[in-house]
Design brief:
nine-stranded mixed sheet; binds 2-acetamido-2-deoxy-beta-D-glucopyranose; Jelly Rolls; transmembrane helix; 38% strand; 16-stranded mixed sheet; 826 residues; mainly beta
Length: 826
């Protein structure tokens, strides 16, 4: 309007006769021909004392000065402002030509008009789909209800058009929150100025806008605490049928807004439903739809908007949709506005996110925000290393947030890190935060094939299993950086002294309750770097006399990853004996390639027992008087037939002192002969067992291990076997006796198949319960020749192939290959 109408304004100014409006003095008004302005002088509020308007010596009740006309008039009283008002109408037609945009001038200026109440009316017509925006640059506006007046008497009355019908958007005073009103299909602004107002500016501008596709959008800006009352269009009359009106609210992030409906009524809907819809930052379910009689949202942080949607009304009895509501903006009331300092300036790899817990609430909840410096608030913040942060919260329920942190500990130079230890500790600044620390992850990176990791807890850990779940308020989740390898979840109060991890891994402290750190004073997990080894993991456990120790293969039911090995170093305290029990009879693993096997090895004697996990039944409960290894290596299983083992260890005081068989007397007694053979093999084993452990087989090495059933058989036939100490005396001896023609007793049947062929069909079974006393077998110094050993010697254990296997050596690919590249780097 500005540019285009400047000349008009100047012309008007020049044409106006600034005569005295008082008393009988005459006033002359000239309106230029092309100004599109019409000035009306008419009676205002009725008054008791009469006052008359004269023009051309005629008494008139109303005077109209059209463009191109000049009129002079006078009043019969001294106070015409109490009787007469001016209305200055300007029509702007933008249907054909572009709208004049910009600051809207007051034409004519206040000072150039008689001192009467005056109303400037701008009537802008546009095409149906054209949007227009009114901006109130000066003081923002406050909406008032019908019949309410403004303290300074200045009001804006804003209307729009729907299909040529005028719809009243509202009446507004100064000193409010409304900064912009967007309309479509034209608008009408009536600015009322009382006669004593010397105001010379309209206080608003017009800009064009894309179609808003609704009746109007009223924008309110809050800069601080405050409130606004707003009304639906046409209030208190009915909202136009099937219309949509939106209110937008700009609220500083550190404040909170609440909506309350002060007055509303609904119409009789024939189609659709009358409703309000909110767009609320931080809400996962926008738009939030409410009925008018619902409680409306409160404690919202950030900008939001609210839309009123009408319906198709019943023509017989439409009723009226109307709404008067209040938005209250204030400091958060429900939580302390405490500030937490999180100093990450000394950190290089620690980053922390505070974010909403992914728990979609069925119903709308007020925004929950994290603020930095109390100013910038957002539903989620991430604190990067290297800076210091002041964190506060705008959230009535801090349990809706949690914190997730990640720190990288990486060793790039293996010579430097080797044997170095680093505590895995959550910094106090993170612990003090009033939100749950969901996860604190340490990414532990080591140079490939150079170093491995050792996790040493301050207090022994328990593996979370179904049988013995962790119920502590936090646990460590340990996973390999290799995808699909999850070692398990561990909490304090168990038997695991150390966890060794082959390669890059992550340890995640996950908490389940606030204040978890008070449960265990001083978090305690230390990582150190050791020379590389090839098992995926080695667990060092010292069972507790008081409780069962449950252990489970990594990855739970998803199965141990293909071709990987895991070992458990199980310490048996002196004076105790351990019973090792597997939860099931068979693993159910089906190998596509490679072999899945388990070795149980007594550490002191190195005696070992090998089980094919694909073919054999798992061992029955077995006793161990000395520390032993449980080493499990997986093949590459067929999908769905994964390797997944659960076993447990219990300790009992030794009931019998060492049962040592010392005497080997050569000659006829087959029992003794057999014993001699066993001892021989143990000795032999000791001699040859200098290669690295079977457990190191993993990756391709494992696949190539030709542990076919045939080989097992052969090994046994060659008497390259040794008996592991879990076999109960009578069973072993009984079988030996039987095999060498004795009839000592008939052992129980075991389901172990591959060995049946050559040895007869009745291998003995291990003791059925843990209460039986096992026999420890000993090495003896005079080994009888092993080559002549009968195949029956080892009914359900089988041999560790060895270099001493004589003629069979060539057919054995050793389990252990010292030449294997990738041995532990020392
Ligand atoms: C002039 O305006 C004031 C305030 O808006 C109002 O009270 C008064 O009645 C008006 N006068 C007439 C004649 O309408
Ligand atoms: C309105 O009056 C103020 C001073 O009262 C003046 O600075 C301003 O330029 C005037 N505006 C117009 C459009 O005349
Ligand atoms: C506003 O009007 C100008 C000039 O007529 C035009 O170039 C512009 O695209 C319009 N903007 C909108 C949002 O309609
Ligand atoms: C309402 O707010 C949402 C989210 O802030 C926004 O996407 C949407 O465009 C807004 N609607 C209106 C009409 O302002
Ligand atoms: C803390 O809250 C009180 C009361 O709500 C308020 O007056 C004060 O300004 C707030 N302080 C900060 C730093 O926001
Ligand atoms: C472990 O991480 C380090 C550093 O990112 C990388 O150099 C190394 O190759 C990774 N090791 C493995 C086995 O991927
Ligand atoms: C956790 O479980 C152990 C037994 O496994 C029990 O003794 C202890 O009381 C439990 N603690 C809690 C907090 O439930
Ligand atoms: C096995 O565990 C015992 C007891 O914790 C420990 O002394 C021994 O060094 C471990 N053996 C290996 C090879 O880690
Ligand atoms: C079992 O695994 C441990 C640790 O990897 C190893 O020291 C030991 O030699 C292995 N035992 C056998 C028989 O492979």
């Amino acid at each position: 309007m500005g540019g285009l109408d400047c000349s008009v304004a100047v012309a008007l100014l020049g044409a106006l006769v600034l005569g005295a409006a008082r008393g009988a003095g005459a006033v002359e008004i000239t309106v230029p021909r092309d100004s599109d302005i019409t000035i009306l002088v008419k009676q205002g509020a009725p008054s008791l004392r009469p006052c008359h308007l004269f023009t051309a010596k005629r008494h008139v009740t109303m005077l109209t000065v059209k463009p191109g006309e000049r009129t002079s008039f006078s009043f019969t009283c001294q106070d015409p402002e109490k009787h007469f008002v001016l209305e200055i109408q300007k029509n702007i037609d933008c249907t054909a030509s572009p709208c004049p945009l910009g600051e809207v001038p007051l034409q004519p200026p206040a000072a150039a008009l008689p001192a009467l109440n005056r109303t400037f009316v701008w009537d802008v017509r546009t095409r149906k789909s054209t949007g227009l925006e009114l901006r109130f640059s000066g003081p923002r506006l406050r909406q008032v209800g019908p019949g309410d007046s403004c303290p300074d008497g200045v009001t804006y009355t804003i209307s729009s058009r729907v299909d040529a019908a005028v719809v009243k958007i509202g009446t507004f005073c100064g000193k409010g929150t409304v900064s912009r009103i967007k309309l479509q299909e034209g608008l009408k602004v009536a600015l009322h100025l009382p006669w004593f107002q010397a105001r010379n500016e309209s206080g608003f501008s017009i800009t064009n806008h894309t179609a808003i596709k609704r009746l109007c959008i009223v924008e309110s800006v809050f800069e601080d605490e405050g409130s606004a009352t707003l009304l639906s269009a046409n209030y208190p009359a009915g909202f136009p049928e099937d219309e949509l009106m939106t209110w937008q609210f700009m609220v500083p992030a550190h404040l909170r807004a609440s909506v309350s409906f002060l007055d509303f009524s609904t119409s009789n809907c024939e189609r659709k439903e009358e409703r309000v819809e909110y767009h609320i930052p931080g809400s996962a379910t926008n738009p939030e739809v409410f009925r008018l009689d619902d409680p409306q949202p409160g404690n919202m942080a950030g900008n939001f908007n609210l839309s009123l949607q009408g319906c198709d009304q019943d023509p017989q009895s439409p009723g009226a949709l109307r709404l008067r509501f209040q938005v209250l903006v204030q400091h958060p009331q429900t939580e302390s506005n405490k500030t937490y300092v999180v100093d990450l300036s000394q950190e290089r790899t620690l980053s922390l996110s505070i974010e909403p817990r992914p728990k979609p609430s069925p119903r709308f909840k007020a925004g929950c925000f994290v603020c930095l410096e109390s100013r910038t608030c957002s539903p989620k913040v991430t604190l990067a290393p290297g800076s210091k942060y002041k964190v506060s919260f705008l959230c009535d329920d801090l349990t809706r947030l949690w914190a997730i942190a990640e720190k990288t500990l990486s060793c790039s130079d293996h010579r430097y890190c080797q044997r170095k230890a680093f505590p895995l500790q959550v910094p106090d600044d993170v612990l003090q935060l009033p939100v749950q620390l969901r996860d604190f992850s340490w990414k532990l990176l080591v140079p490939r094939d150079r170093l491995s990791l050792v996790l040493t807890p301050a207090r022994k850990l328990q593996q979370h299993t179904h049988e013995r779940p962790c119920n502590a308020s936090f646990s460590y989740v340990v996973a390999s950086a290799a995808p699909d390898l999850y070692f398990g979840s561990f909490c304090t109060g168990g038997s695991i002294k150390q966890v060794l991890l082959r390669q890059n891994s992550s340890v995640t402290l996950r908490t389940y309750a606030p204040g978890f750190h008070s449960e265990v004073p001083g978090q305690g997990l230390t990582v150190s770097f050791v020379p590389y080894f090839k098992e995926e993991a080695i667990f060092t456990v010292t069972p507790d006399t008081k409780s069962k120790l449950y252990l489970r293969t990594p990855n739970w039911d998803r199965g141990l990853p293909a071709l990987s090995s895991v070992s458990w170093n199980i310490t048996v305290p002196s004076g105790q004996e351990a019973c090792l029990t597997f939860s099931k009879e068979r693993t159910g693993v089906v190998c596509q390639s490679g072999r899945a096997f388990m070795i149980i090895q007594e550490q002191r004697t190195q005696m070992e027992e090998i089980f094919s996990l694909e073919d054999d039944t798992l061992p029955k409960p077995s006793f161990h008087r000395h520390s032993f290894w449980v080493n499990i290596s997986n093949c590459s299983p067929t999908s769905g037939k994964q390797l997944d083992l659960l076993f447990w260890v219990t300790l009992t005081p030794r009931t019998l002192d060492v049962t040592v068989i010392t005497a080997v007397v050569g000659g006829g007694v087959s029992l003794l002969f057999a014993l001699g053979l066993i001892i021989c093999c143990v000795k032999k084993k000791k001699k040859v067992n200098k290669g690295p452990a079977v457990g190191i087989y993993n990756g391709n090495i494992n696949t190539q291990m030709p542990l076919q059933p045939k080989k097992f058989q052969k090994g046994r036939k060659d008497n390259d076997s040794h008996v592991y100490a879990v076999i109960e005396d009578t069973m072993v001896y009984g079988h030996l006796l039987q095999g060498s023609g004795g009839s000592f007793l008939q052992p129980e049947v075991d389901a172990y198949r591959p060995f049946q062929g050559a040895m007869g069909d009745r291998p003995p079974s291990p003791p059925p319960t843990c209460s039986r006393v096992p026999t420890a077998k000993l090495a003896e110094e005079k080994p009888p020749p092993c080559t002549s050993l009968e195949p029956e010697t080892e009914p359900y254990t089988f041999s560790h192939p060895s270099q001493a296997a004589g003629s069979n050596r060539a057919t054995h690919v050793p389990l252990l290959d010292p030449q294997e590249p990738g041995l532990p780097a020392e």
